[in-house]
């Protein structure tokens, strides 16, 4: 088949990052372009023991990809938008925002429980200041603990205690079965042997069996788009957290392709840009930039295009979810960026900027949003 050109696009090397990059690749290939994905290991990938929320202040998961673009080694770079710093080099533009995935978060539990059904004092793992604050705002009794790793690693950490306990029970039942061989009155507790049970497990469950348990989580919170794109959504039980009440991170669920301002950037925009997604994420990131939150702040911003207006919802918390500034506003779509700036200024005057500054200066250790993608 005749092609219209070859594009080299940088991506991080984690499974989820590659899956997301493949979505962009396939969209361009559908338009008869050849696409080469170039894997780049970033500082954030290399330094796994440093506090991720501190790395986030320098865009450790983003800037090295963009440097390859500026140096001319690649034509563009593919990012998770919620991980991008709000400041960009002058030469770079967000060339394309493909159609956004699901923007909200999900609560993942071993049994499909809702947030309200978790037991008193339950331990919930999360990777962001925002999620921590939102959880504690809803359930002050929860123990919110840091959770590191890619999506599959986090899920394995959640499932490990239950899977290992079940394996132990089945192993003991097997021993009892063997000890009572020949006893016609003996009724085994399980119909299958532990080996037969193991063979029917998913790969995720098998990996969880071998994982060392440091913290026993009753639930974890992840971005729904990341869970779906990882291919693991069908392997676990989860409940959606409404984005209108559990407001997601700015740009969550969206991808962005950066490129040097010029012909290639314009070409990418014409090919795969999704205007609605661009408008909505522009509002979210403008509010974030004006409030000075970077990509690590305890702030949720969710925008939905509704006819001539963009309905924007914002929640800003202190680190423990005890104080908050919450507001929503309909912004005219024909001047959505300007209106988003004015909205953010009003929020700042109401105390949002002070909450962000105080939370960002905290020396505590929860991770930033991006890490689930290895992200």
Automatic annotation (TrEMBL):
Residues 160-188, 354-375 are annotated as: Disordered. One of its GO terms (molecular function) is hydroxymethylbilane synthase activity. Residues 7-160, 214-263 form the Porphobilinogen deaminase N-terminal domain. Residues 282-327 form the Porphobilinogen deaminase C-terminal domain. GO terms for biological process: heme biosynthetic process. Its cofactor is dipyrromethane. GO terms for cellular component: cytoplasm. The keyword Amino-acid biosynthesis does not apply. Residues 359-368 have a biased composition (Acidic residues). Keywords: Porphyrin biosynthesis, Transferase. This is Hydroxymethylbilane synthase. It comes from the Archaea. Its EC number is 2.5.1.61. Belongs to the HMBS family. Residues 166-181 have a biased composition (Basic and acidic residues). InterPro entries: HemC (IPR000860), Porphobilin_deaminase_cofac_BS (IPR022419), Porphobilin_deaminase_N (IPR022417), Porphobilinogen_deaminase_C (IPR022418), Porphobilinogen_deaminase_C_sf (IPR036803).
């Amino acid at each position: 088949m005749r092609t219209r050109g070859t594009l080299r696009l940088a991506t991080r090397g984690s499974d989820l990052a590659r899956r997301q990059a493949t979505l962009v690749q396939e969209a361009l290939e559908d338009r008869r372009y050849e696409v080469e994905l170039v894997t780049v290991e970033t500082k954030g990938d290399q330094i796994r023991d440093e506090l991720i929320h501190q790395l986030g202040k320098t865009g450790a998961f983003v800037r090295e990809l963009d440097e390859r673009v500026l140096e001319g080694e690649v034509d563009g770079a593919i990012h998770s938008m919620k991980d991008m710093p709000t400041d960009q080099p002058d030469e770079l533009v967000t060339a394309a925002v493909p159609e956004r995935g699901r923007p909200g978060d999900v609560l993942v539990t071993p049994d499909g429980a809702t947030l309200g059904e978790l037991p008193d004092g339950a331990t919930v793992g999360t990777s962001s200041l925002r999620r921590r604050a939102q959880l504690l705002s809803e359930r002050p009794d929860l123990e919110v603990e840091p959770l590191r790793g890619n999506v599959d690693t986090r899920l394995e950490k959640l499932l490990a205690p239950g899977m290992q306990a079940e394996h132990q029970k089945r192993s003991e039942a097997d021993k009892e079965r063997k000890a009572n061989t020949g006893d016609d009155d003996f009724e085994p507790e399980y119909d299958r042997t532990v080996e037969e049970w193991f063979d029917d497990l998913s790969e995720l469950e098998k990996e969880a069996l071998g994982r060392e348990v440091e913290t026993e989580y009753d639930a974890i919170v992840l971005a729904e788009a990341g869970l779906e794109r990882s291919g693991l959504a069908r392997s676990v039980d989860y409940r959606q957290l409404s984005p209108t009440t559990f407001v997601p991170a700015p740009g969550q669920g969206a991808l962005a392709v950066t490129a040097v301002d010029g012909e290639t950037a314009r070409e990418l925009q014409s090919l795969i840009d999704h205007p609605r997604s661009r408008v909505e994420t522009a509002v979210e990131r403008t509010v974030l930039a004006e409030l000075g939150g970077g990509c690590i702040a305890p702030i949720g911003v969710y925008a939905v295009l509704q006819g001539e207006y963009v309905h924007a919802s914002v929640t800003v918390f202190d680190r423990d979810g005890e104080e908050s500034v919450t507001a929503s506003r309909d912004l005219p779509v024909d001047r959505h960026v300007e209106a988003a700036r004015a909205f953010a200024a009003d929020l700042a005057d109401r105390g949002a900027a002070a909450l962000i500054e105080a939370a960002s200066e905290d020396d505590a250790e929860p991770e930033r949003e991006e890490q689930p993608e290895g992200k």
